[in-house]
Amino acid sequence: MAKSPTVSLVNINIRGVVQGVGFRPFIYQLATRHNLKGWVCNTSEDVRIEVEGETRDIERFLRGLREQAPPLSRIENIAVTVGIPVNNEKFEIRHSIAEEGKYQLVSPDIATCPDCLREILNPEDRRYRYPFTNCTNCGPRFTIINDIPYDRPNTTMKVFRMCPKCRSEYGDPLDRRFHAQPNACPVCGPQLELTDAGGDEVPSEDIIAKTSELLKEGKIVAVKGLGGFLLACDATSQTAVNRLRQRKNRPARPLAIMVTSLDEARRHCEMNIEEEKLLISPGSPIVLMKWKAKSTVTRAVAPGLNYLGVMLPYTPLHHLLLRETGKPLVMTSGNISEEPIARENDEALRRLGGIADYFLMHNRDIYARYDDSVMVVERDIPGFVRRARGYAPYPIHLPYESRQILGCGAEEKNTFCLTRDNYAFVSQHIGDMENMETLEHFTNTITLYQKLFRIRPEIIAHDMHPEYLPTKYAKELAERDGIKLVPVQHHHAHIVSCMAENGIKGPVIGVSFDGTGYGTDGKIWGGEFMVADYKQFTRMFYIENLPLPGGAQAIKKPYRTAIGYLLSLGIEMDRSLPFLKNIDPGEIDIIQSQIEQGINSPVTSSMGRLFDAVSALIGVRGVIEYEAQAAIDLETLAAKAVNESAHYPFAITKHDDINTIKIHDLLAAIVNDIHNRTPRARIAARFHNTVAQMILEVCQKISPKTRITRVALSGGVFQNRLLLMKAVSLLEEAGLKVYTHRHVPCNDGGISLGQAAIAQFCDEEEG
Which domains does the chain show, CATH number per domain? Predict the structure, then answer.
């Protein structure tokens, strides 16, 4: 007599990004394929599944669950428990369950998938040329959600009632639009509107075709995207680009472009495999790549630079617009200066009316502002310059269990970080905290993250600088709610952010190079070598303190820094130095007086300022129009002499038990090279070699004394790809293990992660 098959029942809890990515229909189809009964539902915490059937079929189901999950899902954990069979009669998808205090991971917005792209380009499809086409595999997520579970009533799509055809797709577990919350079509979904700068509608039978016509005429169009407005113009027209720059008050900072396809991107840039993968990935970031000389994109897009920021279309609207226009388009954030990106239609007309000639808008509301992410690939490893669309709010995994902590971030390139369990939710790029609009964006986004991830901070961490807006916010919030405050030194936070994202638990040699950071002695730090862990740091070496005559004025005018450094170090400075020719002798006298009398001349150990000084000294960039421009131009020049192997001398002396790196010999040698008419590219390359050699030699001094062989590199200076490559190569050749940033930027956009991690361990130590 044949043995009856064993009937079993298991309950499964799955955590991760498993909602809004087609996970329930995948479960339904997988269970049906293996003849299993039961149910699946979303909750505020996870996806819960009950399957009942033959043991071997359940085993196949569990294997398929791990191996065949939807491509956009990210399974963090699967918990399986065995239960008693209950004779389920069918497999069904149950209604979502909201649970107090529970949370789930939220998917970032995802670029248009191939299936949806085929539909919008197919004249026979009912979604032909519909700019809001999406499915469970693509489309808006984070920018339209205001609470969990991720169901349509909790999104800005709730105001659009689905037509019968869309409702049928939405309710069919075998359809790829099953429970696709933004599902819509031309009959029932969001619609486009084209207006002039005054908000008056521009009549048109085909809005996309009309917008394309305007762009080809050289007009500037504000285009409403996923997380806000982008300003678009013809990237091949120097006139159009310069007009955009003038109106946006962005005279030189590089702009990003959007191109139709990977093939078109190849016509403008040299690309490796990893860069190509990034471009076509679901995150679809801007990727900085080597600019081809034969590119038709006007050099006004990124004046004087070797790298061009390129992205592919990531919404159906972008795909249609780029194909219709047939040209690469500048696509830059819809804002003025450092204000947040414009989000709402009326807001965009008000704030961007003096920039854009026309506005391409729609009536789907945006809940969260969302800039484009910017990435680079170095040594085949992708890294962030700016982390936002396509990546936030997906969390960073922590190598420890964390309390609920808020890290408020830095003043520039601000992000904040909220932690709980083993997750760090680092926000999308907020921006420079220089105005009330950005502060409002900051506070509103903190509120959203706290709501989505059910976090009520027990500790607030902030930068030590007393005048930073995030610091003031932290103190006001802590006083109001009675929450513990933890001040965190800027460069310690840089190093710990690198440690946390790389899962490092023990101490490291930290090299923290940036422009400005408030030191524990009240001075401006920025060229720091330290031994650090999550609790504390010891400053081991630093660049000698030198004056910034005029303070902030010296940062905007690097020639003042160069003059201040030469005068302070006693290096002969005669008028034959080319960079002095256009400087008023009276200003030089004032600078000298400021230094001698210590008037408005704060001292700094900043490596960023040293790059500025050298850039000005050799005549590359004496006045900047955007942050780090002098250093960027210096790197661009150095790349022309990439085979240069020489480096300049420097010295190390001990002062107050800390070793100081003296740069008199370095700058004196550069001045000597200038007098000898050494090509500027060779001087720039030698300087880069010197900084890399400095990193190596100092780390080699620290390592034997501390028995630490791990080196973490952090701070905005390491956005310099040439320096990073040289430093990592030297350190690895010396047998040291090097850690760099991959998941958060090395600039101040990663500070908040380090703050939150330090606050966790400082609190443990005190407890």
Answer: 7-93 (3.30.70.100), 192-375 (3.90.870.10), 395-502+748-766 (3.30.420.360), 524-532+540-739 (3.30.420.40)
